[in-house]
Amino acid sequence: MISILDYDAGNIKSVEKALAFLGEEAVITRDRDVILASDKVILPGVGAFGDAMDRIRAYKLDQVIYDVIDAGTPFLGICLGLQLLYKTSEECKGATGLGILDGEIVRIPDAPGLKIPQIGWNSLKLTEGKRLFAGIEQDSYVYFVHSYYLRSKNIEDVAATTHFSVDIHAAVERDNVFACQFHPEKSSTVGLQILKNFIEL
Questions:
Q1: Residue 164's CATH number
Q2: What is the pLDDT of residues 87-144, one digit of tens each?
Q3: How many domains does the chain have?
Q4: Has 92 been annotated as catalytic?
Q5: Domain span at residue 184?
Q6: Which residues contact 104 (CB under 8 A, 6 or more apart)?
Q7: Pairing status of strand 125-126 against strand 148-152
Q8: Among this protein's residues, is 169 annotated catalytic?
Q9: Rg of the chain taking only CA atoms, in angstroms
Q10: 183 in active site
Q11: Which of 16, 24, 173, 185 is an active site residue?
Q12: Which of 96, 119, 149, 162 has the smallest number of Cβ neighbours within 10 A?
């Protein structure tokens, strides 16, 4: 079973529906015992970095997340869920994220002809050998909705990049921690394959 962490964020139901389409049992929960007993855990989300961290701490999900990762359970962050794995974000000065991975969340720089937030499809440059992208072709398109992006301090963590005004670290893998800035649950057959890869870890 997969636990989808419930901290009142947007877009959670679409993740549940994508997993159901793949035949995977999933539950939206903030129950510590259920989460720790799960085979996999997903932190989805759309919204603001600081508000999200306030809710995660209010529900005491921060400690649950640390315990899940320490236990070696495969963990997937999606969109805001990726950003929350880092300590800081330019979106909310003074807010502190989970600090599980090393890097910074910064605003996409303005560029002529580009609208921010980035909303739409963009292609990925994949790092060879990353488990989340097994069977995915180079330059496959996935769906993004974001104004801030990751600059990972550990280049070996980076599983995929994209370009939108600037080079963006679009996905990361480190041990049992996986995360995507894009939305696999909204990325058609490519996204479903990525979720299937996570299910099969």
A1: 3.40.50.880
A2: 999 999 889 999 999 999 999 999 998 999 999 999 999 999 999 999 999 999 999 9
A3: 1
A4: no
A5: 2-199
A6: 86, 87, 88, 89, 90, 150, 151, 153
A7: unpaired
A8: no
A9: 15
A10: yes
A11: 185
A12: 119
